[in-house]
Design brief:
The structure is a single chain. The chain has 234 residues and is an all-alpha fold. It contains 8 helices and no strands. The termini are far apart.
Length: 234
């Protein structure tokens, strides 16, 4: 298992991301007049961003980007923080503003988004070197809190409306439930990043397994939802 993960981890991870993105493009016309179209754009963005993040492999040895050795961007923590730790959260606040009906809840989301964005900028400024060398537990936890807030607001709205009768065919339900589960699984791992090194391969493989299975679950669920759900049900 360890050898398999060592050789195929990135291939498997990128494969499920690309499958979800391609499925989204395949279903583009189906969701063209719904908010889910933005989610499809997001899946494509994530797949491309993940591939771009692999530039670090070109830095190793005598790779074409070996000139980046010793610079702040030798590793891709900065990029992952921008497009995922911060970027994904901002996208989901935007997306839930589109699918939530209550003006009061939308206002809450806007306030939470702005607070998170300003806090992230200030945190990065005051922790500039850490921005390039590791993930920030504070930003990850703050992002998880935002996701939790978004999903709870959506679920409460669903429970208090007639949409509860057809929730199982709504792509927004699957998106909400899936991202909640993913963030609950992944968030605690950021506190153990200090152990993520080749000096402790046991933890490296454990973390890879958790991330891999969480990503497979998330992106395959997105793929299923895109194919299965009825775009007329929000």
């Amino acid at each position: 298992m360890e050898e398999f993960l060592r050789n195929n981890y990135y291939i498997l991870t990128h494969s499920v991301e690309i499958i979800a993105a391609v499925t989204g493009l395949f279903c583009f016309k189906k969701y063209k007049r719904t908010a889910a179209i933005y989610f499809i754009y997001f899946l494509v963005f994530v797949a491309l961003s993940e591939l771009l993040g692999e530039y670090t492999h070109l830095v190793e040895g005598d790779g074409v980007l070996s000139f980046l050795k010793g610079t702040n961007i030798e590793r891709n923590y900065w990029w992952s923080t921008l497009y995922w730790v911060i970027g994904a959260i901002l996208f989901y606040t935007f997306y839930f503003q589109k699918i939530i009906k209550s003006k009061k809840n939308i206002l809450v989301i806007k306030i939470a988004r702005n607070v998170f964005l300003y806090f992230s900028i200030i945190h990065i400024i005051f922790n500039w070197q850490d921005f390039f060398s590791k993930f920030s537990p504070i930003l990850v936890v703050a992002g998880a809190f935002i996701i939790f807030l978004l999903v709870i607001l959506y679920f409460i709205e669903i429970l208090n409306s007639e949409r509860i009768l057809t929730f199982y065919k709504s792509i927004n339900f699957y998106i909400s439930a899936t991202i909640l589960i993913w963030w609950l699984i992944i968030t605690p791992l950021v506190f153990y990043d200090m152990y993520f090194s080749k000096a402790d391969w046991s933890f490296v493989f454990l973390k890879w397994q958790i991330y891999l299975f969480a990503n497979i679950f998330m992106y395959l669920t997105f793929t299923f939802a895109l194919l299965w759900c009825n775009p007329k049900i929000d």
